[in-house]
Amino acid sequence: MKNITSEALGMKVRKPSGNYLYFKTRARSRSFGSLPDLFNQDECEGREGTDEISHGMDEEGKIFKFTPSDPKIKTKYAEVKELFQEVLSPTVVTLMTEVEDDKTVIKKSLVKSKILCDTVLESCRRECAIHSCLKHPNIIEMYDYTEDDEEFSLFMEYANKPMYLSELVNDTHTPVEDQHMLRKIAEDILKGLSYIHGRGLIHGDVKLCNMLCHEENDVISVKICDFGLSYILDQEKGNKVLIKDVSGTLGHIAPEVKSNCMIGPEVDIWCFGLMLYELAVAYKPTQLKSYTYSSGDIPFRRVDWRRKSPLLQDLILKCMNYNPEKRISAEEALQHPWITSQE
Ligand SMILES: Nc1ncnc2c1ncn2[C@@H]1O[C@H](COP(=O)(O)OP(=O)(O)O)[C@@H](O)[C@H]1O
Ligand SMILES: [Mg+2]
């Protein structure tokens, strides 16, 4: 993994900061079937005009369809301020208000002038199609999306403390000492992941800056965002997907992810385990001197872990099992004693 050069792999690899080292993206057509297949399937449930979102896949496992609204919907929203933009990334995130009722929303623009090839345009359409089908309290809700000559515009729920977790760990190097809070964060993320996996998807880029926080009545909830690197699982292939190129964020990619290999939802669980480790001690295992993932068991430095529950370590180890077949699932992790115990 350390030897990855993004260029050699011709892939979309994100730097840990979130921006792109190289924006050519993986060719996803092999993993997803041909694009006409993907984009001409049954109407996506949960979009405007339909009643209920289905929590399962249809028999074909194909329910994600790109059905953008008329670009005129953009006039429903007024810009308040830009929140996020990085030099090499096509993403611009802007705080907006809905003109009619003053509701705060987020617009994520994927700016076409910064998109270098057609496969990336396809992956933007895939992000819209997938994200708009997801409805869960621990996933940022997408309200609407459209495409015009300039950009894809994704209108979504606003999280009022978006970078809380990533700032805590990466900027202030502060672990989450309060076990109740850590448990609530972990549980929220697992519920979101369990839903995503149950819909036949892999998130594909699980990391702290894609886990947005929202505070209401002094309670913090975590909501998963950013489905730009998601995969649709192939039920015929045992709920796995064949990937052509490695994608994800450097330092946050499960060990089994290689070019031309089959992966499953377990890749997200590895990243969840890593996040839980980071939240508990405010550094990654690989930041410890001389440790690399291939060099042995995940290290738990006594000075940092002696006051923490051994059950927390147990959960992390079950998530970061090198063997994806033996890794705990999101649903199982929700039943793990560290999550269910009230201590
Ligand atoms: N719904 C939202 N509410 C608040 N901030 C958001 C929201 N969506 C994205 N952001 C901010 O924008 C950043 C980039 O958004 P993301 O969807 O992760 O884009 P990218 O695909 O470029 O990583 C997030 O890390 C977060 O800081
Ligand atoms: Mg992101």
From TrEMBL:
The keyword Kinase applies. Transmembrane segments: none annotated. SUPFAM superfamilies: Protein kinase-like (PK-like). One of its GO terms (cellular component) is nucleus. This is Protein kinase domain-containing protein. PROSITE patterns: PROTEIN_KINASE_DOM, PROTEIN_KINASE_ST. Residues 77-339 form the Protein kinase domain. GO terms for molecular function: ATP binding; protein serine/threonine kinase activity. Pfam families: Pkinase. It comes from the Eukaryota. InterPro entries: Kinase-like_dom_sf (IPR011009), Prot_kinase_dom (IPR000719), Ser/Thr_kinase_AS (IPR008271). Keywords: ATP-binding, Kinase, Nucleotide-binding, Serine/threonine-protein kinase, Transferase. It comes from Euplotes crassus. The keyword Signal does not apply.
